[in-house]
Design brief:
single chain, alpha/beta, Rossmann fold, 6-stranded mixed sheet, two-stranded antiparallel ribbon, 56% helix, 8% strand
């Protein structure tokens, strides 16, 4: 009988509804009874002329009155929420949102990192996606414009399956515009209703112009940007599919190196953390896992901690089946019964409205909505500690820090303010708050642990800044030496390879002349050394991949047609009656086998679909701006 011991009502105040309901039934009964007394003294022939239509009704029978009272009793019990068992409920759904933005400009094809920069970036993103057990993740690629590969979703398997199809050679236009990727990522976050989103940018460098562009589009209240740089300062050639290496306007082979100067300026201007790509996971874990490393703030509501795992299951909805036969019996007189059924039309859950809400304070009202909308609750709270707690949960760490600074001078408030400052990137101020919390309460182990974590982060920042300063000086010296070596090496290569290039050009010009007569009306020959033709080379490389797939399809179709013609010839040698009998059996099996064999040979290339999608979206946009760089 454990259920009887646990039986109670979730909303017991609804039982008070029984009193006015029974009073209404009694008054209804008395009114009908009084009307019936006139019928006892007036001739039935005169009733229609002496009494109104409502007053001339017969008195209600006791059975109808009993059914109405029973219906009111069942409705009151159902609204009170009878329950006797608990059901497990998650504390809160992880609403952490991460948008990964991958640079897919032509420079990402450089092979200074084996096998190439973009392949290493894909491997890094794969590790990140596999590690995300919950939360929402999105993937964006960009060159001169930004394109959505996958919107915000908790299905990370889909993103992992699409990653191998991404490459710089399926992109529609050359260039690199990270500001457009950030703008698209924030649009995805707003459309998904996300209050706070983390943006992870994987790039092999940005321009000085991008600093102002990013600062203009970045919404710091919505998004927090982190950067991972890819590549080396020396760089390496960029092999183009079917057309040698990427060259500049003077015909020199392009060797794009990683220049961290603009990235450092961006990080300094907007307080953006960044790391260079490493072989392990320490680069992205130090950027997007910082929030998970810090212990959550001390919850100011102990009642929520006690009841955060189980919820009482409301069993009142089962009583609606008892009302169905009553409604069937009273459907002709269903006006009163319909009034009692109206509350069942209100959607409500275990946190439905109660009469006590009429006397709640601002803090109590904000506590009710804090579970669903902590940002709105932060505006309603009057108590600074509650306000800071709500702002922290909403991701507004700067407001949370200000609210905690107005709270009482206690260890818990210093600890919470330290967490808010750490999340907003103010690590030095966070260290001071943790130290103040330990002075107030030396036994607060969570503050001591977070203090050590923030100190390590500060040391890493200082070491990284020193390494970057030393690395810039070394890179400048290496670049000067390499430029001299390259100039001397290129002169030797041009002299030694001039004869070989002439032979190859003579063979290629024969085939190119035929294509140029059809495509070039002016008779001008495009030059690979012209930077304006870098876009044509990129599209030509992707078109060659399409042509290979089309050639495979034509070959497979020819093989299937040959098999079918062979079968037709065999049938021609048979008599008409035998061929007619075999056409429904033998030919059907042969056609199915040939079709299945043809389908098995069709290559599965999701990259072709992405290429067509990006090209379509690029052409749909008007007034495309220049990407400023071609690789």
């Amino acid at each position: 009988m454990e259920w009887l011991h646990n039986f109670h009502f979730i909303r017991p105040l609804w039982l008070l509804l029984i009193i006015p309901a029974l009073a209404a039934v009694f008054l209804f009964r008395q009114r009908r009874k009084n009307n019936g007394q006139w019928q006892q003294v007036i001739d039935p022939l005169l009733l229609p002329y002496l009494l109104d239509g409502n007053d001339s009704q017969k008195p209600a029978s006791p059975f109808i009155t009993l059914l109405m009272a029973l219906a009111a009793f069942i409705v009151a019990i159902a609204l009170a929420g009878p329950t006797w068992q608990k059901i497990p409920q998650p504390v809160a759904k992880n609403q952490d949102a991460l948008v990964i933005m991958m640079d897919m400009s032509l420079s990402m094809g450089s092979q200074d990192l084996s096998p190439s920069r973009y392949v290493r970036a894909i491997q890094k993103v794969t590790d990140i996606v596999r590690s995300r057990q919950d939360g929402q993740t999105a993937l964006i690629v960009y060159d001169a414009d930004a394109y959505t590969v996958a919107p915000l979703t908790d299905d990370t398997d889909t993103i992992e399956n699409l990653l191998p199809s991404v490459s710089p050679f399926i992109m529609p236009a050359p260039g690199s515009r990270p500001d457009k990727a950030i703008e698209l990522a924030q649009t995805l976050a707003r459309d998904s209703g996300v209050g706070k989103v983390q943006l992870l940018l994987l790039t092999d460098g940005i321009q000085n112009k991008d600093i102002g562009r990013i600062s203009d589009v970045l919404d710091t209240g919505l998004a927090s940007l982190k950067v991972i740089t890819i590549g080396t300062s020396a760089g390496a050639p960029v092999p183009m599919p079917g057309s040698g290496f990427l060259k500049d306007g003077q015909g020199n082979i392009v060797m794009p190196g990683l220049n961290t100067g603009a990235v450092e300026a961006l990080a300094s201007a907007l307080n953006i953390p960044w790391r260079n790509m490493t072989l392990d996971d320490s680069d992205w874990q130090s950027l997007i896992s910082q929030q998970a490393e810090l212990n959550p703030q001390v919850d100011a509501d102990p009642h929520e901690q006690q009841h955060r795992f189980d919820l009482w299951a409301d069993q009142g909805y089962w009583l609606i089946f008892l009302l169905l036969p009553l409604a069937l019996l009273l459907f002709r007189r269903g006006v009163v019964v319909s009034v009692f059924l109206i509350p069942f039309l209100w959607p409500h859950d275990s946190y439905a409205f109660e009469w006590l809400d009429l006397w709640q304070t601002k803090d109590q009202q904000a506590a009710e909505i804090m579970k669903d909308d902590p940002k709105a609750a932060a505006d309603v709270f009057e108590d600074p500690q509650w306000k800071g707690s709500a702002a922290y949960k909403a991701g507004d760490y700067q407001s949370a820090a200000e609210a905690f600074s107005q709270s009482a001078d206690s260890a818990v408030n210093h600890y919470n303010r330290g967490n808010a400052l750490a999340q907003s990137g103010q690590l030095q101020d966070a260290v001071k708050e943790y130290q103040q919390a330990l002075k107030k309460d030396p036994s607060l182990k969570a503050a001591e642990k977070n203090l050590q974590t923030v100190k390590k982060a500060l040391e890493q920042q200082q070491k990284q800044q020193q390494q970057n300063q030393n690395g810039q000086q070394d890179d400048q010296q290496q670049d000067q030496q390499q430029s001299q070596d390259q100039q001397s090496g290129q002169q030797n290569q041009q002299q030694n390879g001039q004869q070989g290039d002439q032979r190859q050009n003579q063979q290629q010009n024969k085939q190119q002349d035929q294509d140029q007569k059809q495509n070039n009306q002016n008779g001008e020959k495009p030059s690979d050394n012209d930077p304006q033709n870098a876009e044509d080379k990129q599209q030509q490389a992707s078109a060659e991949q399409q042509d290979d797939a089309d050639k495979d399809d034509k070959t497979q179709q020819q093989q299937a047609s040959a098999e079918k013609n062979k079968a037709d010839k065999e049938n021609d040698g048979k008599n008409p009656q035998q061929a007619q009998n075999d056409s429904e059996s033998t030919m059907t099996r042969e056609e199915q086998a040939a079709m299945q064999q043809w389908l098995n040979r069709v290559p599965d290339k999701p990259g072709n679909l992405l290429q067509r999608k990006f090209l379509y979206q690029y052409r749909q946009k008007d007034n495309q701006e220049s990407g400023d760089v071609l690789w």
